[in-house]
Specification:
The strands form five sheets. The chain has a six-stranded mixed sheet with strand order 1-2-6-3-7-19. The protein is globular and about 80 Å long. Helix content is 33%, strand content 20%.
Length: 450
């Protein structure tokens, strides 16, 4: 007797959570090769072996390609990452790497971000192979390392060195599926904000901590710089995605109008509850001072300090804009502060008038007949950008149960008590199974060059 796809997904997800592939940003963390071995064991007997790449010891990715019958039919990649972020165990109610199932909910780091989808992708890919389904276009399953640190040893490395393994015409990845409103509208990530990380280097004058009056303490200057940046407001921009999302929330008309107005947005933010952070990030280029370092000894006034800034940019924002925001925020502190770094990745957005987007809508309506897709712009980064930057449409897709709203969903990303209910696993893997079979089984009238 065959095991339902949802149960297969839950079992595989448990194993992947327990592998504890924690990526702290250092080259020797992650150990995603453990996930690769788990997935290889999962695919045993299916006829799918795949290729393993390991750019750095332990940082392994597994790629499987099922060739299509028509070399000119569009291909589809299921792109999932296998690493997870660190945890603060004291803040968890359950073992963060236990994969426990309590009252129909699985707990563990990666349950939402994004081992649930990676496991579902593997289940659908194996099921396709076992049943002998012959796709018109190629199906690519990619379980990649290092997404949580920018894809240096994962999708980024593959794009630069082995694009042949992961190349596809369309991509599904994280992190859609949360319902909004009573209809409901199901979020699908059609793009994401860009990135422009910067470091502030603060110069003071070292001295003895016993006589701080009149000193030029780099830590104090840096603290003031942090406070100014926290207070600074970049321009409010109402994107098409945010306008539609505000409408879907079904708040009172005046609040909805405020949330759709650059002049009144901050009036409406408190009414969005757990969505306040997302609402603000959806309408602003954000500057978050996240890492601060100053001083080496308690009785020495530090002469130098650094502040690392996580900057996420909206579509249309340029590196010059970022420089201007920082200079305006810091003002006269620029006498003591140097802005370092030139990293810049544009915001990326995929079109919605594609054959794949239409199939995603069908899959959602199979689960929820009255539902429709709600295109969204992700505040954070995903591996999908490596495709969008090359002009390849990439969508974050899933179908979550009614217990989730996007505010609750987002709090679990990188937060305490990350978890997913088994009903959502059932809904998502069934939707993905439909999408893969329908998209790769039809002639969409689209011919691609190889």
């Amino acid at each position: 007797m065959s095991v339902p796809l949802g149960q297969q997904t839950a079992r595989l997800l448990q194993e992947m959570i327990r592998n504890a592939a924690v990526n702290d940003g250092s080259p020797d963390s992650g150990h995603e090769i453990r996930q690769v071995r788990t997935l290889q064991a999962f695919f045993e007997g299916s006829g799918l072996d795949g290729i393993v790449v390991e750019p750095h010891p332990g940082r392994g990715s597994l790629i499987i390609r099922i060739p299509g019958t028509d070399p000119h039919a569009p291909s589809l990649a299921l792109l999932g990452h296998t690493d997870v972020v660190p945890v603060e165990s004291a803040g968890w109610d359950r073992d963060p790497f236990g994969g426990e199932i309590i009252d129909g909910v699985m707990w563990g780091r990666g349950a939402i971000d994004m081992l649930n989808l990676t496991a579902a992708y593997a289940v659908v890919t194996r099921e396709i192979a076992r049943q002998g389904f012959r796709p018109r276009g190629d199906l690519v399953f990619a379980a990649v390392a290092d997404e949580e640190n920018g894809g240096v040893y994962g999708a980024g490395w593959l794009t630069e060195h082995r694009l042949d393994l992961i190349d596809a015409d369309y991509v599904l990845t994280e992190s859609g599926g949360a319902p909004a409103g009573s209809r409901p509208s199901i979020g699908v990530m059609i793009g994401e904000k860009g990135q422009a990380q910067r470091t502030l280097r603060v110069t003071g004058v070292p001295g003895h901590g016993s006589a701080p009056w009149g000193s030029r303490n780099a830590a104090v200057i840096a603290a003031e710089a942090i406070a100014r940046i926290a207070r600074f407001r970049t321009p409010t921009v109402i994107t098409p995605q945010w306008r539609a999302y505000a409408e879907a929330l079904e708040l009172d008309p005046d609040t909805t109008a405020a949330l759709q107005s650059p002049e009144r947005l901050f009036e409406g933010l408190p009414e969005t509850g757990l969505l306040q952070g997302f609402a603000h990030a959806s309408t602003h280029t954000t500057i978050s001072p996240n890492v601060f370092h100053a001083g080496e000894k308690h009785n020495v006034i530090p002469g130098e300090a650094t502040v690392q800034l996580d900057i996420r940019v909206l579509p249309g924002v340029s590196p010059d804009d970022v420089e201007g925001y920082l200079r305006e925020a810091l003002g006269d502190l620029l006498e003591h502060v140097q802005i370092e770094g030139d990293q810049f990745v544009d915001s990326t957005v995929s079109p919605t008038n594609t054959p794949l987007f239409g199939v995603l809508r069908e899959a959602v309506r199979r689960a929820r007949p009255a539902a429709d897709l709600l295109p969204m712009l992700a505040a954070g980064g995903t591996d999908g950008r490596f495709y969008r930057l090359r002009g390849v449409p990439a969508y974050g897709f899933g179908v979550l149960s009614d217990r989730w709203d996007y505010g609750t969903f987002r709090t679990l990303f990188h937060g305490h008590n990350e978890r997913i209910d088994l009903e959502s696993l059932d809904l998502t893997v069934d939707a993905l199974n439909h999408v893969v079979r329908e998209f790769l089984g039809r002639d969409h009238g689209v011919r691609v060059k190889r």
